[in-house]
Amino acid sequence: MPQLHIIGLTTRYISNRFNDINNYADIVKKSEDSLIEYREKSGIVKIQKERLKNAEKILSDKNIKGYEREKAVINKAEAEIELNTQRMAVRENLMDTLTHEYGNFIHRNANADYVQKSSMFGAKDLDGKLINGDWKYDINSHYSANAKIEAAKISKYVTESPYEAFAEGFFAKEKGQKIPENIEKVIEEAKVKAGVKKTVRHHEKGYIGNNAQRIGSNSINLDYINSEAYANKFKKISKDNELNNLIYNKSIELLRNNNNSDTEDLCIITVPNKQVLLNVRGERDALGVELSKKQSSIVKNCKMEMVGIHNHPTNLLPNGSDFTAAGYRGYKYGIVVTHDGRIYKYSVGNRPFLPALLDSRIDKYCAKEYNLNTREAYEKALNEFRKEYGISWQEIE
Questions:
Q1: How distant is the alpha carbon of residue 61 from its chain centre?
Q2: Residues forming beta bridges with residue 311, ordered by sequence position
Q3: 324: which DSSP letter?
Q4: Which single residue of 40, 43, 125, 306 has CA 20 to 30 Å from 361?
Q5: Residue 45 — pLDDT band, cuts 50, 70, 90?
Q6: Residues 122-137 pLDDT 10s
Q7: 275 CB-near residues (< 8 Å, 6+ apart)
Q8: What is d(CA 128, CA 220) in angstroms, rounded to the nearest whole number?
Q9: 10 pairs with which residues across the strands?
Q10: Proportion of the chain above pLDDT 90, given as a percent
């Protein structure tokens, strides 16, 4: 069974469905489509609205007591849960699932005694109920039923337990979506308790910190990048000459715009029609470039194959953030152009990993005891990940 490693602390075993990224995305889509189809064809919305109306009518009559009233309370809660449920889960692809699992990791590590389920952080604040040694939502309990009703606004998966309310809520919040206030409060407190400094963000960046900082300077040899020798490298990227020319032109543009600067820019192009989907300017000297919510939506809704091109002022090879951004956005492959004239082509493999896993491997090999220069350390780590996680990478020479 595949494993998801969260650096240095834990291993999560995940489904064999994750062996194929594209196949998993199809599974997710079918799951969501089936829920939509069920709601449309079954008339469930109309049925539950009628069920809710009848329950509220009974509850409004103070003369009705006992079993009939208790049944009306449950019917009301179940109807509201069903009406609030608009999707199966927050995730849309394999990389989304990694962020969800990172949420689970934070939740467990917010309490020193996370092995004991009874000590699970924030379980009471999430209005869970300890049943047979485990936290559940209890629809027979007023406060727990109300929590489950609210949680259903995030996804159907959330209603399984307070654990999933935390993880799904964490991920939905990372995507900029609104979540119930009580869940958000527990998440923020858990992040502090677990010592989270920065959550997973899917964006390209030119450095990983620690031992691997940069190679050379951010100054560009304009004579070289304007040369025929440099242009000829791009002819080896793919068998599509028109696509290669577009990648070359956009790469030259990125480099010229950022000479003697630590600013990174990103260009995303669509493969079938050779069009620019997005030009994104990174924050000045930030050594990274991120998409806005609007830009992320454009990428998400694009149904064509895409190639992402960005510059590395540090002259470093592709790192963990580059690979996870490529996987999250669904790039056919990514291109890194460095300020010292190198070109790297990379793509994700068939096993997911968080950025820190690759970055820490690179950083390890940059340490003095390995006697490797920075480029050699990157190459060693990337070659190991090629075997372990199925990634693809090469320098275009």
A1: 49
A2: 337
A3: H
A4: 306
A5: very high
A6: 888 999 998 888 899 9
A7: 269
A8: 58
A9: 6
A10: 59
Separation between Cα atoms, residue 163 and residue 256, nearest integer Å: 49
Alpha-carbon distance 318 to 315, whole Å?
10
The residues facing 6 across adjacent strands are 10
Cα distances from 121 to residues 162, 169, 195, 235, 263, in angstroms, run 10, 15, 14, 55, 40
Is residue 247 within 8 Å of residue 368, measured between CB atoms?
Answer: no
Token readout for 380 is 């060693």
CA atoms of 376 and 388, how far apart (whole Å): 18
Which residues lie closer than 8 Å to 372 by C-beta, 6 or more apart? Answer: 365, 366, 380
Q: State in Å, rounded, how far the first CA of the chain is from the last one.
A: 37
Count of other CB atoms within 10 angstroms of residue 358:
27
Helix (H, G, I), strand (E, B) or coil at 263: coil
Separation of alpha carbons 55 and 82, rounded Å: 14
d(CA 230, CA 219): 16
Q: How confident is the model at residue 299 (pLDDT cuts 50, 70, 90)?
A: very high
Amino acid letter at 203? H
d(CA 393, CA 397): 13
CB-facing half-sphere around the CA of 307: CA atoms within 13 A: 24
- The average confidence (pLDDT) of the chain is 87
The span from the CA of 141 to the CA of 80, in Å, is: 15
**CA 372/CA 375 separation, integer angstroms:** 8
pLDDT tens-place string over residues 260-281: 999 999 999 999 999 999 999 9
CA distances for 83 relative to 48, 80, 154, 219, angstroms: 7, 5, 12, 58
